[in-house]
Specification:
With 321 residues, this protein is an alpha/beta fold. Helix 1 runs antiparallel to helix 3, helix 10 crosses helix 11 and helix 11 crosses helix 12. It is globular, with a radius of gyration of 20 Å.
Length: 321
């Protein structure tokens, strides 16, 4: 329990700052990807990290998972992975003369789905209910997942061999898609001069599951006035009427953007949203949910194409004064 002299807001901000510093120990020079991942975590969303191999996708995921405490499980997605390998399977217990659930790795606080697009669409779809509703249905029974439940998925670019593009319904379950990119030259030089072992091992645990749930509830208390809400809705509407897009953002996408904006405000020490919160998150939150008008059947646009289209739309929407 906090001392009466300690401001609860200050304690909350201290915990969030400590969480960000902890993850930065493993992934230097990348504050924006870290902040985006923390935003999704606080907003009860899920993160899709897309980039070329070897730039720290898995490092970011593991560092974030370790820093927030709780139980973490990792699944390496491959072409022969089955849905039961992720969800679990009912097996017959001779002593109980009944079927019992042998839980899969999805029954955890943090699930690291590594190279998710190397698995078949059937296995990818096994995550849909879990990511959307926090539960798993097996053999006619519904099993709740632990709280909090957070999926961090990594994927290689879709032009790499042996990958299956994520369907739109799967992409829509990820609140934020981000990329890491190459480290700054000075950081990369230091890593080459003095390569270390597993940097995630030194990441401290700064939260526990219950504290994380409390911080997620704080996000719901962050206010958003009508001007910012109208600005957010105008951006979502712009994606639906733009000639450059054949498919705009859904209502779920708008709700996700609203919740993410509140989480970003909390990370910046505010209990109210401003237009910057919406503007900064629009591209990483909406770009993977839209379809380009020039997108032919079977054609998968590059990430840059989708992001550029959304970015141009956001710049055209008037910002409230």
């Amino acid at each position: 329990m906090l001392s009466p002299a300690v401001n609860p807001d200050d304690e909350r901000l201290h915990r969030l700052a400590a969480l960000e510093r902890a993850v930065e120990q493993a992934l230097e020079g990348k504050p924006q990807p870290i902040q985006l991942a923390l935003t999704a975590l606080l907003a009860r969303g899920h993160v899709l990290i897309e980039d070329v191999p070897g730039v720290g996708k898995t490092t970011l995921a593991r560092a974030l998972a370790k820093a927030v405490g709780g139980e973490m499980r990792r699944v390496q997605f491959t072409s022969d992975l089955l849905p039961s390998d992720v969800l679990g399977v009912a097996v017959f217990d001779q002593k109980r003369t009944d079927f019992v659930l042998r839980q899969g790795p999805i029954f955890t606080n943090v699930l690291l789905a590594d190279e998710i697009n190397r698995a078949s669409p059937r296995t990818q779809s096994a995550l849909l209910e879990a990511m959307n509703d926090g539960q798993v249905s097996l053999d006619g029974q519904t099993h709740p997942l632990p709280e909090p439940f957070f999926v961090i998925a990594t994927q290689n670019p879709q032009d790499f061999s042996g990958t299956f593009p994520l369907p739109e319904s799967q992409l829509d379950r990820f609140m934020i898609r981000l990329r890491i990119g190459y480290p700054p030259p000075q950081v990369e030089t230091r890593l080459m001069v003095n390569p270390q072992g597993d940097r995630v091992e030194d990441v401290p645990v700064v939260l526990d599951p219950q504290t994380l749930v409390e911080l997620q509830r704080e996000v719901d208390r962050v206010s958003m006035d009508s001007a910012v809400a109208n600005y957010l809705q105008a951006i979502v509407t712009a994606t639906r009427v733009a000639p450059t897009l054949a498919l705009g953002a859904s209502t779920r996408a708008g709700m996700n953007l609203s919740r993410a904006a509140r989480a970003r405000a909390l990370l910046h020490g505010r209990r109210y949203c401003i237009a910057d919160d919406v503007q900064e998150l629009a591209v990483p939150l909406l770009a993977h949910r839209v379809r380009l008008a020039s997108q032919a059947e079977g054609y998968v646009p590059s990430r840059d194409e989708s992001e550029s289209a959304v970015r141009d739309l956001v710049l055209r929407v008037p910002v409230p004064l």
